[in-house]
């Protein structure tokens, strides 16, 4: 079965490379927008610690494993790690494809590191600025000065870091193990919400199809359904743990805004928990953040229930076009955190002055 037999094809995307040889190797179409790329010489004298953002999701965990494999394949010693606990979805992926669980790391000071799936210092260990940044592999907006310190920088306007890394395995002619290919496929399915996300690109779909062949996955849609079941497991979790399961801090016009997301095939089981989740958002906001929002995404209805703790609820109405009632609102079509949540929120916060609210 083709990957798109039961999965929606994303909208046309933009280009990553002008160079035709590199573009062909990364399986990227022609277009006017160039790929932001800088390559330097990485020293082989000491191992590089590869990890993703705090509260790691599946893309962050799997991309750390993939980037470490890629660097080792290039003759650059590297090892994967993760700065947070596994989610149920990530644990399922590691079991399903017999992949090792990266060890936990909470400090980066004095280490040579490579970052995957983020380039904002506020989304990594507290002492990240004290580390030697050797490389960055990311698919998000590049904020701050962390990425600018890396001798090797790979950024791509795709929905998943694993998509970028899949192309780099071809670019550097490094063998991609079948199990790791399966994990990377799951990362793409997760980050694109089974290709329902507005952030999904044709590059993500082509990478998923290629990775499925390499991993021997005949039915991508069935794997996606199993992945979603694992992702929706909320048993035994505190309200705070649910908000932090897939959570990132963003700096918006000088203010720290936390945005978490829970994806479910149906959000009915979460309805009785709304009060506790909203209280957890308020607790996290009191820890130095201006605002905290949790989006509980219903993939069946293709929208999200947002729960927000903020001194400026009007900014959420400005961003999403719906007022908050009791700290909550239903936003139809909201699936992608990057495209549907962070971008409009950032624009709303830019309407504020620099003085504290």
Quick take:
The chain contains eleven helices and eleven strands.
Please characterize this protein's 3D structure.
With 357 residues, the protein is an alpha/beta fold. The protein has two domains: 20-227, Alpha-Beta Complex (inorganic pyrophosphatase (n-terminal core)); 239-350, Roll (Diaminopimelate Epimerase, Chain A, domain 1), CATH 3.10.310.20. The chain contains eleven helices and eleven strands. It has helices at 20-25, 58-73, 88-96, 161-171, 178-191, 202-215, 220-231, 239-244, 274-285, 313-320, 337-350, and strands spanning 37-38, 48-51, 78-80, 112-116, 132-138, 152-155, 247-252, 255-264, 291-298, 303-309, 328-332. The strands form two sheets. Strands 1-6-5-4-2-3 form a six-stranded mixed beta sheet. Strands 7-8-9-10-11 form a five-stranded mixed beta sheet. A hairpin with a 4-residue loop joins strand 9 (291-298) and strand 10. The relative contact order is 0.12. Mean pLDDT is 87; it is low at 1-38.
Q: What would you say the CATH architecture of the largest domain is?
A: Alpha-Beta Complex
What is the arithmetic mean of pLDDT? 87
> Low-confidence stretches at least 5 residues in length (pLDDT < 50)?
1-38
What oligomeric state is this? single chain
Number of continuous helical runs:
11
Strand content range: 15-25%
Overall 3D form? globular
CATH topology of the largest domain: inorganic pyrophosphatase (n-terminal core)
Distance between the termini: 54 Å
The biggest beta sheet, please?
6 strands, mixed
Q: For this structure, what is the CATH homologous superfamily of the largest domain?
A: inorganic pyrophosphatase (n-terminal core)
**Structural class, judged by helices and strands?**
alpha/beta
Radius of gyration: 19 Å
Helical percent range? 25-40%
Number of strands: 11
Strand order within the widest beta sheet:
1-6-5-4-2-3
The tally of domains stands at 2
CATH class of the largest domain: Alpha Beta
**SSE pattern:** HEEHEHEEEHHHHHEEHEEHEH
